[in-house]
Design goal:
Elements lengths: L1 E10 L2 E12 L4 E5 L4 H16 L8 E7 L11 H11 L12 E3 L2 E2 L5 E2 L4 H11 L3 E5 L3 H4 L6 E5 L2 H8 L13 H4 L17 H13 L3 E4 L6 H6 L10 H13 L15 E2 L7 H5 E2 L4 E2 L1 H4 L4 E4 L7 H5 L2 H6 L1 E6 L2 E6 L3 E6 L18 H9 L3 H5 L3 E4 L5 H5 L7 H18 L13 H7 L4 H14 L3 H18 L6 H9 L7
Parallel strand pairs: 3-4, 5-8, 8-9, 10-17, 10-18, 11-14, 14-17
Antiparallel strand pairs: 1-2, 2-4, 6-7, 12-13, 15-16
Helix pairs in contact: 1-2, 7-17, 7-20, 17-20, 19-21, 20-21
The protein binds adenosine-5'-triphosphate and magnesium ion.
Adenosine-5'-triphosphate binds next to helix 8.
Length: about 500
């Protein structure tokens, strides 16, 4: 007998329907899975066999073939255990569904005793169900909360295979999962760790970070050791604007596929802050691997990627970021096709100006030779620097500032201003996929970055004197747009352009 069950594959972050066909025929007893399965799916045979036996059913001693269609799509991971088991039970007549199961999607990994385990990537799969109008989705009970983030489909939380069999046979029904509406309402209640108030002095750096956070611009901090660069960067999450719900769901999908969602909180509310160590590999940074995984730049999607000690990162590793920094997505080519992950992150980097760290310091003398300073600074290529809108120096803080008892501005006050600037951007881009100024393309720059006459003049002078590239010109305009948004101005004025221009690096570009 032949049975068909619907399931789902995840390629990158997109779901794709997979039909699991199970045929049982007479002949030598065997259990084969065909249709480009990976090792985890081949092992699924053993799990399915044990789970069926341990939930009190009979595993047919016949020739069983499970086909995962379409055959040209490579399937990975253990999410097919449940549909294969249901297929075997249907084909052997041990389940006689009361209602048709054509409109149902089955997802989940089985354990040997027949219970369902947490499965990665449930959210993108449910998103596909919504899109394809598959109305009912059976998921492991542990993942029901994650699955219920999307409305429009009925989610059944399944604890064990036995429970699902009873449900399908109409003997004991499983209650549909009722989503907790508070999850989406809690979006404001995020706890922040490090506060900007703890950083003494460095007001100009805080201002630059505020501008960067408002429009999601890239920023590079440079200064002597111990001046507070790492401290400032680690305080960044506390001044970032809230994520809108679409952003939250986007980020949650990435974390779901990577298996990094906390079990008690299925929705990522806080913008990610990733700070990989400089020994990170290519694949670790941009994604990839045998079973493809999103890299750090995708895990930092809609948030911050903090690269501390930038020159210490391998040069090749940094160069692979050039394309994603521009396109906001990363495409990984593999033998079986390409995978695209979103990578719309804001780069925050820090570095010392030279190997000893004191080049340009007014107090301590730098002990590096001119050539070693050159070599050190050359580790970061011009094209990468050109993609960084804000270059800011973080000088040493003097005793008076450090010992000052007065409280510095706290993160909450800064965050309110950042949030207001972001709201203006959201309004500007409403109806489009864009959410912030950094995402503008050339045509949006033309439409939205209008400068007044004096701003225009200043920009022209800056272009000529600083030899700005075309990219730098657009980036200055986008940055000026954010500065004007922070000031609440519709038109970009000379002082906004001036601030944006002084954030460009002084040499070369
Ligand atoms: N502006 C500051 N206000 C208060 N504390 C500071 C400040 N700058 C530095 N510190 C203190 O110095 C410590 C080291 O600072 P941090 O790690 O941020 O320096 P850094 O600039 O990243 O140095 P390096 O270049 O060596 O990485 C902090 O943990 C903090 O205790
Ligand atoms: Mg540091």
């Amino acid at each position: 007998m032949l049975a068909k069950v619907q399931s789902c594959a995840v390629i990158g972050l997109e779901g794709a329907l997979v039909e699991v066909e199970v045929d049982i025929s007479n002949g030598l007893a065997a259990f084969n899975v065909v249709g480009l399965p990976d090792a985890a799916i081949n092992e699924s045979r053993e799990r399915v066999r044990s789970a069926i036996k341990n939930c009190g059913c009979l595993f047919p001693y016949k020739r069983i073939t499970a086909n995962l269609a379409p055959a040209d799509l490579r399937k990975e991971g253990p999410a097919y255990d449940l549909p294969i088991a249901i297929g075997v039970l249907l084909a052997s007549g041990q389940i006689n569904p009361e209602k048709s199961i054509d409109e149902c999607l089955f997802l989940g990994e089985l354990s040997l005793d027949g219970s369902l385990r947490h499965t990665n990537g449930i959210l993108p799969m449910v998103a596909l169900a919504c899109e394809k109008r598959v109305n009912i989705v059976f998921v492991p009970a542990d993942d029901a909360m994650e699955a219920s983030l999307l409305r429009g489909v009925t989610i059944y939380p399944v604890e064990t295979l036995g429970q699902l069999i009873a449900h399908l046979n109409g003997e004991r029904l499983i209650e549909p999962f009722i989503p907790d509406p508070r999850i989406l309402e809690n979006i404001d209640q995020v706890a922040y760790g490090q506060d900007m108030a703890a950083v003494r002095g460095q007001e100009h750096v805080k201002r630059a970070l505020e501008v960067a956070a408002s429009g999601a611009h890239n920023i590079l901090m440079s200064g002597p050791p111990g001046s507070g660069k790492t401290l400032l960067a680690r305080s960044m999450p506390s001044i970032l604007p809230r994520m809108i719900i679409e952003e939250s769901l986007d980020v949650t999908k990435i974390y779901s596929v990577s298996g990094m969602l906390p079990s008690d909180m299925p929705l990522v509310l806080q913008r990610p802050f990733r700070s990989p160590h400089h020994t990170i590999s290519h694949a670790g940074l941009v994604g990839g691997g045998r079973i493809p995984r999103p890299g750090e730049i995708s895990l930092a999607h809609r948030g911050v990627l903090f690269l501390d000690e930038l020159p210490e990162f391998g040069q090749n590793v940094l160069e692979v970021m050039r394309q994603p920094l521009e396109d906001k997505v990363v495409t990984i080519s593999r033998a079986q096709g390409t995978i695209t992950y979103p990578a719309n992150f804001m780069l925050v980097a820090s570095m010392n100006p030279c190997p000893c760290g004191f080049f340009g310091d007014p107090v301590r003398e730098c002990s590096c030779s001119a050539s070693s300073i050159m070599r050190y600074q050359k580790r970061i290529s011009g094209p990468l620097l050109d993609r960084i809108d804000i270059h800011i120096e973080v000088p040493r803080v003097d005793y008076e500032k450090l010992a000052d008892k007065r409280n510095a501005e706290d993160s909450k006050t800064i965050r309110i201003r950042v949030q207001e600037a972001r709201e203006r951007q959201l309004q500007r881009f409403s109806g489009t996929k864009m959410t912030c100024n950094a995402e503008m393309g050339p045509s949006e720059v033309r439409d939205f970055c209008k400068t007044d006459a004096s701003g225009e003049r200043l920009l022209k002078a800056a272009m000529q004197q600083l030899h700005l590239s075309a990219r730098a010109y657009h980036r200055v305009l986008k940055l000026a747009r954010t500065i004007a948004d922070l000031a609440g101005n519709e038109e970009i004025m000379a002082n906004h352009v001036a601030e944006a221009v002084q954030y460009r690096p002084r040499v070369g570009m």
